[in-house]
Amino acid sequence: MNLNADFSEIVLLHADDIPWRASPMPGVARRMLDRIGDEVARATTIVRYAPDSQFSAHTHSGGEEFIVLEGVFQDEHGDYPAGTYVRNPPTSSHTPGSAEGCVIFVKLWQFDPDDRTQVRVDMHATPTPDRPGVGLLPLFKDAREEVRVETWASGADVAIDAPDGAEFLVLEGDATCDAGQLRPLSWLRLPIRSRLRAKAGKSGARVWMKLGHLPYAQAPAVS
């Protein structure tokens, strides 16, 4: 399957407009944002676990990055409440599920194959002032990419250069940008040599973003 697989295009989706599609596991449904591949895929997805649902044990050969949006995600390594950002690097393994149910934003097969850095960050931490009207919470940075959460004050004008592309997921609030209106669960992908120009709404906005990674976008290596 190829879905929004042309990384030279601007893509803006409102995830709450996308219907849920059943996964191969009972009780687990998905809203697909982009995808290259079938069940083994370079993918960006919103995933919903019904209460007491579980995926079978598996290894993330290409790594896994996710944000818990609602509920509590769980595996044998611990509980991950809403607002948790996690990176499980290539070769990591787990048996994911949720006793109470949860919704996560997840990215698969988008790591440096040699990355072995495990990351867990509470995104409720207080951001640091970074630019006028903008607070910054760093999540991860290496030679390939930077991942962070920005808090935009009411009416803030925001400009972000994205010479190697960027992705944005609105967690709270709203904003407008050249591509259109942004609201909670809006997902925006900008191609290489882009610049985001946005203005936060009256309530401000809180936005997860990943910068610099699109030159490495490719289908997963499947033997």
TrEMBL record:
Q: Please indicate which superkingdom the organism of origin belongs to.
A: Bacteria
Annotated InterPro entries: ChrR-like_cupin_dom, RmlC-like_jellyroll, RmlC_Cupin_sf
Species, as recorded: Cognatiyoonia koreensis
ChrR-like cupin domain ranges (all copies): 11-111
Q: Pfam families from the entry? A: Cupin_7
What is the designated name of this protein? Answer: Anti-ECFsigma factor, ChrR
